[in-house]
Write a structure and sequence with these properties.
Order of helices and strands: HEHEHEEEHEEEEEEEEEEE
Radius of gyration: 40 Å
Helix content: 10-25%
Strand order of the largest sheet: 6-7-8-10-11-12-13-16
Strand content: over 45%
Number of helices: 4
CATH architecture of the largest domain: Beta Barrel
Structural class: alpha+beta
Largest sheet: 8 strands, antiparallel, barrel
Length: 351
């Protein structure tokens, strides 16, 4: 049995040797536990990756999205548009992939389950308001969608007992109705027919309504600024053409400033007026004819501002019935098969 006096003989006492061994054992166990904890604390989990498909360099829209996602602690990588969005994400080992929609009114987001890798969500985050798109808002909503998907409430630190538990925000992505943009186009040019009635100087007016980013409809009106002259053996006449109709069109353009192209098909009511002159009994006589007209038009121009454009238009069409102009019972000219026109125009859109 060990006594207090034995402490004086530390070098030879059995109590001292057993105490030293037990202390060394505890120290070793403590050291192993500390090293294990340090290793666990120092372990860095692989950072989750978000892929952004980039179709143009130095895109401010993309930079906004990258900045918002970076605040979540996610790694952002980019690559060009090659293959499908899902294939790109799997190739880059990304848990989500994002690309800008062709209309640039929002983004498409693809997500995968982190454990199984199966597709989890395919969502559109868009802003189709007439005053939009607000790219800052789209970027915020995209980051919020990722946050609520990959950082659920259970993985966040518990709230203090005295504080009420906050409800995670819900992201509601609402697609606005089809944007409607009115506009007006005014032009000046020529209108003629191959039947010999001559070419008239014509004023053109088009009241347009854009439905969405591509399709629209228009009300086309036209009247003479100077009548066309025609002549025959029995005399001459001045002819005037009045047109009123509607058309459906498709618009293709880049962001202003830039070029644009519009194609359309329409139908119109045509009124042809001929006023005789020269040889009696045609002096002072006049005649009118009414018919329908089908036509196609092609506009090409340049838009210096998003609401202002200039260009040139070509129109080709044919009447439902051919109009015949007669002098003294003899056929002098025809009008309507075909009808052609070209004019320069200015265009204003309320965007």
């Amino acid at each position: 049995m060990c006594s207090l006096g034995a402490l004086r003989e530390r070098q030879s006492s059995p109590c001292h040797r057993w105490g030293t061994a037990i202390a060394a054992l505890f120290a070793a166990l403590f050291g192993l536990t500390s090293a294990s904890a340090a290793a666990e604390d120092g372990e860095v989990k692989p950072q989750r990756r978000i892929l952004i498909v980039v179709d143009r360099a130095n895109d401010p829209f993309i930079e906004r999205i990258k900045a918002e996602i970076a605040t979540l602690g996610l790694q952002v990588i980019t690559r060009g548009p090659v293959g499908t969005l899902e294939a790109n994400a799997r190739e880059q080992h990304a848990i989500a992939a994002i690309r800008v929609l062709p209309s640039r009114q929002g983004v498409e987001v693809w997500m995968a389950d982190e454990v199984s890798g199966r597709p989890l969500l395919r969502q559109l985050v868009v802003d189709e308001r007439p005053a939009g798109p607000d790219h800052r808002l789209v970027a915020l909503q995209t980051a919020e969608l990722l946050r609520t998907s990959f950082f659920p409430k259970s993985s966040q630190p518990p709230a203090a007992a005295s504080q009420p538990v906050a409800t995670p925000p819900v992201v509601i992505v609402q697609r606005a109705g089809l944007p409607v943009e009115p506009g007006v186009q005014a032009g000046f040019g020529f209108l003629g027919s191959a039947g010999g009635t001559g070419t008239a100087l014509q004023v053109w007016l088009s009241l347009r309504l854009q439905l969405g980013s591509r399709i629209g409809m228009a009300l086309d009106l036209s009247g003479p600024a100077r009548r066309a002259d025609m002549s025959g053996p029995e005399g001459g006449a001045k002819t005037a053409s009045y047109l009123a109709g509607g058309a459906l069109f498709a618009r293709f353009e880049r962001n202003a400033p830039g070029l644009f192209l519009t194609t359309g098909l329409g139908a119109a009511f045509a009124w042809l007026s001929a006023r005789g002159q020269g040889t009696l009994p045609l002096l002072g006589t006049s005649a009118t004819a009414f018919t329908g007209l089908g036509y196609a038009r092609l506009d090409a121009g340049w838009r210096p501002l998003h609401w202002l454009g200039f260009g040139i238009t070509a129109v080709a069409g044919a009447t439902f019935d051919q109009v015949v102009v007669r002098f003294a019972g003899n056929e002098a000219a025809t009008w309507g098969w075909p009808v052609w026109a070209s004019f320069v125009f200015g265009q204003i859109d309320w965007r």
